[in-house]
Amino acid sequence: MAPTILEPATPSKVAEPALTTLKQTLKQKIEAHRPRTTRLLKEFGKVVIDQVTIDQCIGGARDIRSLVTDISYLDPQEGIRFRGKTIPETFEALPKAAGSDYPTVESFWYFLLTGDIPTPAQVDEVVAEWKVRQAVPQYVFETIRALPRDSHPMAMLSIGILSMQKDSKFAKAYHDPAFNKMNAWEFLYEDAYDLVARIPVIAAFIYNLKYRSDKQVGVDPKLDMGANFAHMIGQTKTYEDVARMYFILHSDHESGNVSAHATHLVHSALSDPYYAYSAGLNGLAGPLHGLANQEVLDWTLKFQDKYCRGVEPTKELVTKALWDTLNAGHVVPGYGHAVLRKTDPRYMAQREFCLKTPGLKEDPLFKLVSMIFEVAPGVLQEQGKAKNPWPNVDAQSGVIQWHYGVTEWDFYTVLFGVGRALGCMANITWDRGLGYAIERPKSVTTPMLEKWAEEGGRKF
Ligand code: HAX
Question: What's the pTM value of the predicted model, to 2 decimals?
Fold first, then answer.
């Protein structure tokens, strides 16, 4: 007989997630790191490391040292280091995919999370786990398919990621009495890992939905992430290294850029990774950030159409087109950076890939982009506004995609978003591991700034 009075529900104990080598290593690293953060806070919390000026306050918080991450560091002159390694050192150190000069994305994920170069056996373990985690729930595809087909692919990606929130292991565990500040990261990690494994499958689905008449290709369980992505979007083997290189290069750029910062900020309220990365993707979709790679192609093709009808592009024509862009009040996409003060090493890594890949260096689009590289820094210097006249990652990335037949350039930011997930998810796993606080900087008003300006500074 059914009971007439409902018993109070017994709190369900959160299931202990399995400890793989990666998770075990991460657990040891996080536990070893925690006392360092605690000591800095407790013993040195009031040590001054920066000051804030009015132009930083109005001008996008540029250069204010107020975020911590050990996943990557961006030096204005040298460029990015992932876990202390430059891009060439990273590619050199990690175990390579079978028959490839490039590492698997899975080995890079291990490296980003732990700072350790995984052994081939550890990489195999991650590759195997990745294949289990990459199963995307059917409702994600249905959600994306319900959107107007002319939605931007970044909107589709962001919504697809957000739709998985209902199954967040972190959000579910939050309400369990067994959830606490020490183990919270373990549930975060489960979602983060699921998200990085699923996002390439979702991206490939969007590609096929929008540009290949919804002809979907299932995952091939024999392939690593990069090879599988190539397979799913209908590419041949030659694209596999493009995918591996591209996702690794776009993964992380320390934590102050819009996509990483938005992800960190939203997660700092203990919103789960699906909420957080959907927000990160929404920031990446801006033309001053990740959308710049689409803008570069748009600019370059319009240049060919408008200035080069029946004539070869020349430096004079490129110079004229650049000035026309600047005089119309637009930015030159793919040039400039908020932190970097030299050519982006991610640009150079992709340029080197083009130079060593037969067929690519002869591609007219590559030649044109190289010509822009020769001319644009001088034009921007002459204009005298941009603090950094050199190209960033986005100036080169579209050329490679275009060469391999991925010519739908409004998809390029989605590719960026697949790679950026690795850095953002590694970062918020550590945010939780170290118990970083909810983010909440302080605002001031314009009259306050005016008063402090007249007084020569704020009196403390
Ligand atoms: N073309 C024209 N003008 C530029 C410029 C460019 N490529 N880069 C900077 N400027 C201008 C700025 O618009 C600004 O003008 P105002 O004073 O009139 O506002 C002035 O130069 C000073 O800007 P800055 O301090 O050098 O640059 P910011 O830190 O403010 O902005 C940006 C950095 C990357 C947003 C900027 O360089 C830009 O808009 N570049 C073009 C878009 C682009 O390539 N974005 C991708 C950047 C890399 C990235 O995040 N990838 O995802």
Answer: 0.95
